Amino acid sequence: MAVKRIVVVGCGSIGVRHARLLARRSDLLLELCDSNAACLADAVAQIGNRPCFEDYRAMLATLPDAVVIATPHACHADQLIAAVESGIHVLCEKPMSDSLRDALRMAEAAARASSVVDFGFTLHFHPGLLRLKSLIAAGELGRIVHMYCRVGTYATLACSRTRHQAHVEGALLMDYVHQPDILHWLSGREPAGVYMSASRGGELPLTSNPNVADIVLDYDGALRAAIHINYVQAPQRHEYEVVGDRAWALLDAESNSLRVGSRERDAQTTETFQFERDELFEAEHQAFLDAVEGTRGPESPCKSALVSMRVVDAALRSWKQSARVALS
């Protein structure tokens, strides 16, 4: 079936971005849902008049074809489960939820339902990361021995409308669940164990607990990976590095440049990528709609999204225990 009616649920900054881009499509009837009337009014002011709902259950009762869930993390589980139990397809923003327990509930409900369920890991559509993934898949880097992600961004705190990071412990990891997801997406492998060292530091007007974290992931075999994330740096940094026994590749996702160093040639090459952030969301929307029509599978189904949730859960437990935590 093709999606005709689609409802964006949650009209914060990400929800409005989804709505703005979906509103451009002539093949969709877009509607909005938010329990906050002021947020709905603000969204309508930005994208134009659309049918609106303040009650989520009342909206589901009208049986739209699909919903895009862009509400706070803690709302995701109950909203997704209610939607799929009504036979409605779901594109849910990352992370799956604010807890692994609820993420598992979501996966169980999705497995029972006929609805397509997909999660919004937009970086899967980043041209630089797609190029990096293709290099790995083609064996250009050889056997991969190390992967590294780095995100440092005070800007996320500055742009946050809810300021939830100030009082939700571990919000840094939930906001940047992209990074463990990308490691899994690039390598196709799940880690065996996780160790995290983290702290809250610096004299800044906005902060979180923690606001600096280093996560080490070990795998069966020689592969190792590391993630550094912080809510301190400005201007922000955003990088990915993959080291193989034939070559290495470093993607700077701020300048959108990819450097590849070859051991055999003892030389480096550089590629650059030109795109707008909106294009990533548009590609994500099309992939979801294609999955509903059955021409492809979901880009980030529950099984894949659960890997990043397990890493986040293990990392937070490791931080509290000051010990490596095995992934179950």
Write the SSE topology:
Blueprint: E1 5-9, H1 13-22, E2 29-33, H2 37-47, E3 52-53, H3 56-61, E4 66-69, H4 76-85, E5 89-93, H5 100-112, E6 117-120, H6 127-137, E7 144-152, H7 155-159, H8 171-175, H9 178-187, E8 193-199, E9 212-218, E10 224-230, E11 237-244, E12 247-252, E13 257-262, E14 267-272, H10 277-293, H11 302-321, E15 325-326
Parallel strand pairs: 1-2, 1-4, 2-3, 4-5, 5-6, 7-10
Antiparallel strand pairs: 7-11, 8-9, 8-15, 9-10, 11-12, 12-13, 13-14
Shape: globular
Helix and strand element order: EHEHEHEHEHEHEHHHEEEEEEEHHE
Strand content: 25-35%
- Given this structure, which CATH class of the largest domain is correct? Alpha Beta
- Number of E strands: 15
Task: Indicate the radius of gyration in whole angstroms.
Answer: 20 Å
- Helix-strand category: alpha/beta
Give a structural overview.
This protein is of the alpha/beta class and about 325 residues long. It folds into two domains: about 110 residues, Rossmann fold; about 170 residues, Dihydrodipicolinate Reductase, domain 2 (2-Layer Sandwich). It is about 35% helix and about 25% strand. The chain is built from eleven helices and 15 strands. A nine-stranded mixed sheet has the order 14-13-12-11-7-10-9-8-15. The protein has a six-stranded parallel sheet with strand order 3-2-1-4-5-6, with helices on both faces. Helix 2 links the parallel strand 2 and strand 3. Helix 4 packs parallel to helix 5, helix 5 runs antiparallel to helix 11 and helix 9 crosses helix 11. The radius of gyration is 20 Å and the shape is globular. The model has no long low-confidence stretch (mean pLDDT about 95).
